[in-house]
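User: I'm putting together a small comparison set for a docking exercise, and I want a reference complex before I start. The sequence is below, and the ligand is aspartic acid. Could you produce the 3D structure with the ligand included, as structure tokens?
Assistant: Of course. I'll restate your input first, then give the structure tokens for the complex.
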Amino acid sequence: MKSLLKSLTPLALLAAGTLSAHAAGYPQPDKVVTIIVPFAAGGPTDRVARDLAEAMRKPLGTTVVVDNAAGGGGTIGANKVAKAAPDGYTVLLHHIGMATQPSLYRHLPFKTMDDFEYLGMVNDVPMTIIGRPTLPANNFGELRTWLNANKGKVNLANAGIGAASHLCGLLFQSALKQEMTTVPYKGTGPAMTDLIGGQVDLMCDQSTNTSGQIEAKKVKAFAVTTAKRLATPALKDLPTMQELGVKDFQVTIWHGMYAPKGTPPEALKKLNDALKAALKDPEFIKKQEGLGAVVVTDKRMERAEHKKFVAAEIAKWSPIIKAAGVYAD
Ligand code: ASP
């Protein structure tokens, strides 16, 4: 048998079913790459993933789809990818939660730095503070007055512990010295529906989810969380928290892509190449910029730099989260 195998060409071996999928090259055009989004469909992480899937399809040479594995503030989907077959066909798109969850969860079911291959960063996204359309406040000053008059009664939507909206909400409550009741959703897509419907009062969420609703005046907008005002037409009139006198309140979230630990080097290289091609795709850039996001152009698009950045973000947020005293099991 051995000598017979030796005498066959790779193509003949493939036809005979004796050559493994990996040896046949990655990706196989009949196999689908699935991007797991750890939040509900229709939200901002989902939106980035769907645009990215479209932009990566051509450079990768196979179909790329998005699957939502929502819950646990993003930890369920991340865990799913950490435990998935390391074959290059399952990847994760996650945000700053990758860096805040190690401090927020007592029993995180995966190791952020050890259980993933880092594939590169995607974008930096500002957060915006928004409210239900029926809120009596029309600007940040009026919001503060309303908050003071309604202490203990205010609801704040988020996408669960470890979500970007959770982190921003924590900073917001601590900066304003106001305690609010947090209402967790599986993603800020469904949370937005409730905010527009008036079931919750406030939310801090990515501009990729809020700019369209702000422009359509379906929600009230109070501030951006970046150091400078944004250029995006829908958001350019929104003041920064610094301008509003709330010092030290700055948060920009980011997205990165991950594969399960042990994914073959060939697949990692092709995924990183396809991601970098997407980041240079004018269509992708245009879509992201229109929503206030900034597509990564720096060295963080490289795998090693992405990993370094996440390690630095874990170190940055850990003392802030510890000081806030918030934990989940
Ligand atoms: N924006 C959400 C968050 O708060 C997640 C999402 O639904 O994409 O992290």
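Confidence is low (pLDDT under 50) at residues 1-23. The pocket of aspartic acid is lined by residues 39-40, 43-46, 95, 158-159, 163-165, 187-189, 205-206, 209 (CB under 6 Å).
User: Thanks, that's exactly what I needed.
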